[in-house]
């Protein structure tokens, strides 16, 4: 190895930010979900004192974990501000779980959705990450969103604003960008992208992702792009649709595919493809 390479690599290590304790943050987030939803816990808490002690411990653990990042307020204050949001977070997530049960004929009840559904898990971790994002915590929200991404295949930026009663059906391949705004009672299927058109780096803090109004359904494989794109309330966006412009409320947008079906007694007589 050359001396120049060794020197450059040494400088990079010396200037690197303090690494985040990623596994510890992810374990903490799992503990928060187990507190909020005993359906996910190995051992439900049996007394009010046990619940209170667990909340106090989660607050203390978060304060310690946040000590390695740069914050606008002291870590204990940020931790307390997060913990105070737990009632609202639980209420929102119960609405999400109820929406999934109502929308999915295969769902057998809240217990199954909360304990096993990847869509609910992705939403739950997003709501935790978004709460930390709003408290101006750097890096950690994205760490949690990537943890959810690896486990569910659902990629939601922690900055995305998602309203109540959000339903993710299946979920694999969903991408929701940073400045996306989603209203109430929205249902999204697998493979949907709510993304940005290509913009210059200096526009990074502008609205780059679409707005989805209340009671919209977006079917599998649809792609909706652009910060000025608004999908009006009560609209249905069909599978594989590509949209870069707004549609008014109560719209029905479908992709018309051309499919040819042929039939022959001799399978070798009709070649329908070439390589």
Describe the structure.
This protein is an alpha/beta fold. The protein is 40% helix and 12% strand. It has eight helices and 14 strands. A five-stranded parallel beta sheet has the order 1-4-7-10-13. α7 (118-134) runs antiparallel to α8 (140-152). The longest helix has 19 residues, at 48-66. The radius of gyration is 23 Å and the shape is globular. This is Serine O-acetyltransferase. Keywords: Acyltransferase, Transferase.
Give a count of the beta strands, DSSP E runs of length 2 or more: 14
Q: Portion of residues in helices?
A: 40-55%
What integer value in Å does the Rg equal?
23 Å
Strand content: 5-15%
Low-confidence stretches are: 271-275
Largest sheet: 5 strands, parallel
Question: So how many helices?
Answer: 8
Distance between the termini: 47 Å
Shape: globular
Order of helices and strands: HHHHHHHHEEEEEEEEEEEEEE
Structural class: alpha/beta
Write down the overall mean pLDDT. Answer: 92
Key features of this structure:
single chain; 275 residues; alpha/beta; 5-stranded parallel β-sheet; 8 helices; 14 strands; 12% strand; disordered C terminus; transferase; Serine O-acetyltransferase; acyltransferase
Offer a quick outline of the entry.
Helices cover 40% and strands 12% of the residues. The protein has 275 residues and is of the alpha/beta class.
